[in-house]
């Protein structure tokens, strides 16, 4: 009965000499006898060595963690002589690993009978497939190494980014806490600022009122200045007329003196009024300057 599956991958069947030349560096004491007259014991060693090269783990190391402990747990205190089951389980473990390897290579017809009842033609075909894969693996190993190196660099960069991320998160949390602690102080400053702005608006109103008052006083001063100038002009004109009439008119010295004194008194009163207005304007201007300084 043929238990083998249909072939799923085509590859060259190598001569025995090529198989021996390649595998003698992988398997100790490998010869063409292992191909022409295969035995279970030798094939176990051959396949175990191949698995060690391709996966990095021997069948014994893998079996201790995969099936040996499970076997002890299942049959402990149930049957005697558990060691009788060790060898069959080792063969089953070897088959499971080899089956995964062959499936990965592209050989879908590998079966348990290739380990339990090895045939020369089947062994030659299986080893040819494995050698074809291992050669391909060696040719592409530099690509894998490049990717592995790049992956390590990315992992290092990722670790750096993670560290930076946690540092930034800590900084953000610290700033949030600091902001929360300063929230009351900020509110107090905002209230003070609002109060100052309100005071500034009141001062602005007073400043506007003082400006209007200054403008009104300036108008009054201008009116009085014009009146004084007119009066001064009249006095000068009168003096000129009097000088012309002195030779013609006999004047009453007392009356003339009285008239002149009255005119001088009028001018003095007007000057005092002007001085008072100037002082008031200066006072208002001083207040205005003070308000301007406060506003700045």
Task: Describe this entry's structure for a reader.
With 296 residues, the protein is an all-alpha fold. It has two domains: 16-140, Orthogonal Bundle (Actin-binding Protein, T-fimbrin, domain 1); 201-295. 80% of the residues lie in helices and 0% in strands.
Give the SSE map.
Layout (H helix, E strand, L loop, with lengths): L15 H8 L9 H4 L3 H16 L3 H17 L10 H20 L7 H4 L3 H62 L1 H63 L7 H43 L1
Helix pairs in contact: 1-7, 3-5, 4-5, 8-9
Organism: Acaulospora morrowiae
Subcellular location: Chromosome, Centromere, Kinetochore; Nucleus
Family: Belongs to the NUF2 family.
The domain count comes to 2
Indicate the CATH topology of the largest domain: Actin-binding Protein, T-fimbrin, domain 1
Low-confidence stretches: 1-7
What is the annotated CATH architecture of the largest domain?
Answer: Orthogonal Bundle
User: What percentage of amino acids are in beta strands?
Assistant: under 5%
What oligomeric state do these chains adopt?
A: single chain
Pfam family, one: Nuf2
Organism: Acaulospora morrowiae
Family: Belongs to the NUF2 family.
Main location: nucleus
